[in-house]
């Protein structure tokens, strides 16, 4: 079976490929569909998605709800992990630490980044995540910790 990263590279080479991949990815983990994400980039050690500011993700003050932002951060982390995890290993999120730094008043770009060193020093692999508004302000920043172990 093709890996998620292989599918990303194959599908995004097609016209409307990023849109099609975003839909497929959202269906793999249906909760991701609730934020209407768009996959912008997926590669080893980096992934980026966009969450549009829509009524369905807003809270009572009209900003993107903190949990919707965390959902976007986890989606970006999952893409990074799928593209980075070594063959013969598996990953599982084991915790998330985030700080809410500013109001989420626009579409948000969620990124996840890691280093080769972090993956080599596992099994606890920290992934740096952040969500940025359209004006460049970081609204949420944190770390998602992965547990990376050999497949049995």
TrEMBL record:
Q: Whose protein is this, by species?
A: Aeromicrobium alkaliterrae
Q: Which InterPro entries is this protein grouped with?
A: DUF4442, HotDog_dom_sf
The record's Pfam families line, in alphabetical order, gives: DUF4442
Its protein name is Hotdog fold domain-containing protein
Note the Gene3D superfamilies from the entry.
Hotdog Thioesterase
The UniProt entry, under SUPFAM superfamilies, shows:
Thioesterase/thiol ester dehydrase-isomerase (SSF54637)
- Which CDD domains does the UniProt entry name for this protein? PaaI_thioesterase
Domain of life of the organism in this record?
Answer: Bacteria
């Amino acid at each position: 079976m093709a890996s998620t990263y292989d599918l990303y590279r194959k599908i995004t080479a097609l016209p409307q490929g990023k849109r099609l991949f975003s839909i497929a990815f959202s269906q793999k983990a249906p909760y991701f569909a609730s934020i209407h994400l768009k996959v912008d980039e997926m590669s080893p050690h980096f992934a980026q998605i966009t969450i549009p500011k829509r009524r369905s993700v807003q809270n009572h003050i009209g900003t993107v709800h903190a949990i919707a932002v965390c959902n976007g951060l986890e989606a970006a982390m999952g893409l990074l992990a799928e593209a980075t995890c070594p063959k013969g290993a598996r990953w599982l999120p084991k915790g998330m630490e985030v700080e809410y730094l500013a109001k989420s008043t626009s579409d948000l770009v969620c990124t996840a980044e890691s280093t080769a060193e972090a993956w080599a020093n596992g099994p606890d692999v920290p992934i740096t995540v952040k969500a940025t508004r359209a004006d460049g302000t970081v609204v949420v920043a944190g770390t998602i910790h992965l547990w990376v172990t050999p497949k049995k």
